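Example for tutorial group B:
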């Protein structure tokens, strides 16, 4: 789970409009939640697994969200590549041909199976970029149809 005292950055998207599915290791919540918040604040509709209602079957809810998502975003770290849930989400998204973006939070080497699957996938190496450059790259990589029209003119800004 995410850090116990870590507040959720926003309510996960639930609706019929195009949205982004965000995958991450819960233990990385301190690093990932500000990223998700910046993406959300830029107007992107984001679903992440904190949007699962209590009592619902976790794998079914994740699969439904992934099926409905128009884009897949995964935050890569040493912990996320060890997470069976993250690996399952990556494989599920790739098997369904979802547009895919990986954001590397740190310098990690993918295990052979993930490297085989993700080797040619678009990636942003956040860990070696300045925040301004990272935000520009991320904005170019995420499609506008995933954004609310009322905030689409705003740029993606990132607070460290």
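The residue assignment follows.
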């Amino acid at each position: 789970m995410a850090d116990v005292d870590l507040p959720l950055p926003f309510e996960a998207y639930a609706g019929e409009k195009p949205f982004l599915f965000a995958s991450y290791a819960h233990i990385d919540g301190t690093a990932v939640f500000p990223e998700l918040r910046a993406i959300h604040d830029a107007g992107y509709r984001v679903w992440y697994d904190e949007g699962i209602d209590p009592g619902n079957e976790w794998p079914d809810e994740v699969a439904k969200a992934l099926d409905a998502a128009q884009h897949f975003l995964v935050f890569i770290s040493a912990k996320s590549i060890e997470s069976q849930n993250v690996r399952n989400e990556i494989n599920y998204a790739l098997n369904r041909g979802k547009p895919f973006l990986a954001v590397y939070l740190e310098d990690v080497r993918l295990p052979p199976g993930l490297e085989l699957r993700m080797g040619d996938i678009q990636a942003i190496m956040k860990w070696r970029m300045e925040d301004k450059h990272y935000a520009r790259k991320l904005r170019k990589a995420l499609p506008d149809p995933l954004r609310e029209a009322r905030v689409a003119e705003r740029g993606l800004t990132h607070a460290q």
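The mean pLDDT is 88. Compare this with the pattern of hydrophobic and polar residues in the output above.
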